[in-house]
Design brief:
Layout: H1 3-11, H2 22-31, H3 33-41, H4 53-70, H5 75-79, H6 88-97, H7 100-104, H8 112-123, H9 134-147, H10 151-158, H11 162-172, H12 183-204, H13 223-227, H14 232-239, H15 244-259, H16 268-285, H17 307-321, H18 330-348
GO biological process, one term: termination of RNA polymerase I transcription
GO molecular function, one term: chromatin binding
Organism: Odontophorus gujanensis
Length: 349
């Protein structure tokens, strides 16, 4: 396909395709477009966001089957071939002969690149090594000073995954404040969010008839734009004194206070009633995995709030009321909340 046709056809499945590089669009057209069309025929939408447990299991199944077909003896050799220079040529040949790209993505309605990154995260033995020691943090700072954002090189030097060292450096690269937010920090956060949203809007409207010369203050921003995924590491850099997750949590609170005009949604009987409503709705949904939930659809159980606020309240419920919740599946957590916690909350109310 020529580039314009590829953009047009992919646009049906990937809303943000206009923000991708030409190289990425060409790759996606080759690897994904036919798959996307096949999923469409089956009535299966293309998914984004966190991978569900069902998808993780499918990736593991695909990898195990490919290993059985080719005789490659470990997922690490398959997904991190460069770590084995003596076997690299033979492994690469087997991957090409047996259509590795096609096999890895089998049964998963997502872009191949995202599936590949997820597989690497699942099977990287360097990915789950616990907390960083003080010595490791100092090494990470030193290696970054020497090699910049070459996370592949740094990960090899530290025997940690690429993602792990990149995220940890993001957390420790500047003095992080863990106390209450100052007025200056809040203003920096709001300015940073405004900048990235306006930048996104201008990019989306670049090919439209609307004038791009308007002052950005006059742009009308749909409320949904304020809830959409934002580049939090970029916002973190602009704020300077807070880790990206702190920025995200604070922005959710700011939005909630603006929308609710500062009403205390989680106080007294309102808190109890909202918790009861949320537990009942989650139980009625009969969902097997939290990643299948659209939290925006549950906002009416609490009030006029962002979906992320509802998700945070569910997290508090399970942590507060469900013993050993880390060892339970999502459906087991919901069953416990419905059978054990709900009667208690209704009695209190």
């Amino acid at each position: 396909l020529d580039l314009d046709t590829a953009k047009q056809e992919l646009g049906e499945f990937i809303p943000h395709v206009g923000q991708l590089s030409d190289h990425s669009i060409r790759k996606m057209a080759g690897r994904d477009l036919m798959r996307f069309k096949q999923f469409k025929k089956q009535g299966i939408p293309i998914k984004f966001g966190r991978f569900s447990q069902k998808e993780n299991n499918q990736i593991k199944k695909n990898v195990e089957e490919f290993l059985a077909i080719t005789g490659i003896d470990s997922p690490e050799k398959l997904l991190f071939t460069s770590r084995y220079p003596e076997e690299k040529a033979a492994i690469s040949r087997l991957k090409a002969e047996h259509l590795f790209c096609q096999k890895l993505a089998e049964g998963i309605p997502r872009a191949w690149r995202l599936i590949y990154y997820r597989a690497r995260k699942i099977f990287d033995p360097n990915n789950y090594k616990g907390r960083y020691t003080t010595e490791e943090k100092e090494k990470l700072k030193k290696y970054h000073a020497l090699h910049g954002n070459d996370w592949k090189k740094i990960s090899e030097m530290m025997s940690r995954s690429n993602l792990s060292v990149a995220m940890k450096y993001s957390e420790i690269k500047s003095p992080i404040n863990y106390g209450p937010w100052s007025k200056e920090e809040i203003q920096k956060l709001m300015n940073a969010v405004e900048e990235v949203i306006v930048k996104r809007l201008k990019s989306e409207n670049a090919n439209s008839h609307s004038s791009s010369k308007k002052c950005h203050r006059s742009l009308l921003i749909d409320r949904e734009k304020l809830f959409q995924k934002l580049p939090w590491t970029e916002i973190e850099t602009k704020v300077g004194t807070r880790y990206w997750r702190q920025c995200k949590q604070k922005w959710t609170l700011i939005l909630t206070n603006k929308i609710t005009k500062g009403q205390k949604l989680y106080k007294g009987t309102k808190r109890l009633q909202a918790s009861i409503n949320l537990i009942k709705r989650l139980y009625e949904m009969k969902v097997e995995d939290a990643n299948e939930i659209n939290w925006e659809e549950l906002t009416d159980t609490v009030g006029d709030v962002p979906g992320s606020y509802v998700q945070a309240k569910f997290y508090k419920l399970k942590v507060s009321y469900v013993p050993f919740w880390r060892t339970k599946t999502f459906s087991e957590i919901i069953d416990y909340l419905f059978e054990e916690t709900l009667p208690e909350l209704e009695e209190k109310l």
